[in-house]
Amino acid sequence: MLALGGLFISHRAQPQPTHLDPVAHTVASYNMSALVAGGGSAEVAARARLTAPAAGRSSAASKTGQAAHHSTTPASSSKPTATHSAAPSPAPKLACSGAGGAGGTGMLPDNYVAIVNFLVAHGYTKLAAVGVAGNIYQESKGNPESVGSGGGGLIGWTPLPAGFVTGNTAADLQTQLAALLTYNKGWAQYVPMLNAAKTPTDAAYIYMTYFERPGLPAAANREGAAVAVAQACGIS
User: Is residue 76 included in any domain, yes or no?
Assistant: First the structure.
């Protein structure tokens, strides 16, 4: 389940790619609303590029979020010395060109600049971020207010949680992006693989296969959108 603000989300198990490890039988996955069916040849070619990761789900993260950690400062016999660590510099904002959505350029999803910048600011590589954005294109065209058969939102949460689609697009986008981070933590063992992707298409396929695990992959759409986002933002 995915938890955000005390909200628990249930997912229906979906068929997994044939090369996946046994964790596929325990995943709470999505019943995504597919927008365009992908070609079988694209699926086979995409699978051939990747090597399946080691089996086993991370015990350090789950879809219900992370437990709070507390640290204690030991008492000292001398005067305490204040120490300060420099805060990490925020990632520079990407300069992207091209409009998303139905009236935009090619396969660019709505809100792709905000999506990519958000993910990069939270530790994902630029290529990993465009891979996620490519998947979001297939699920919702980047519209956080998207509602389909039984689900909705950026990545087609099924069932759609209360408070995710409220009509306030800006607020709902931030709510769902935060929820996306929590969901990804449930597959923390695959994040290094995603961040190690060398091309937008590989990043899109990795995210589709090991994170989203949709019933209808449509890999060609996800990969094509990832390429479009990378080109718009000058990411290679």
Answer: no
Is residue 198 situated within a structural domain? yes
* 46-49 contacts at long range (C-beta below 8 A, 24 or more positions apart): 46/201, 46/205, 46/219, 46/223, 47/17, 47/19, 47/205, 47/209, 49/201, 49/202, 49/205
Q: What is the CATH number of the domain that holds 156?
A: 1.10.530.10
In order, the DSSP letters of 62-117 are -TT-PPP----PPP-SS------PPPPPPPPPP---S--STTSSTTPPTTHHHHHH
Position 75 in a domain: no
Listed residue (7, 43, 11) closest to 157, CA to CA: 11
Q: How far apart are CA 14 and CA 29, in angstroms?
A: 6
- Tokens representing 67 are 């437990």
Which DSSP helix (H) or strand (E) runs through 183?
Answer: helix 169-185
Which residue has tokens 């990761």?
53
**73-124: per-residue pLDDT in tens?**
343 334 444 444 455 566 678 888 887 765 566 899 999 999 999 999 999 9
pTM of the complete model:
0.65
User: Would residue 27 count as lying in a domain?
Assistant: no
Say how many domains are in the chain.
1
Which domain covers residue 123, as residue numbers?
109-236
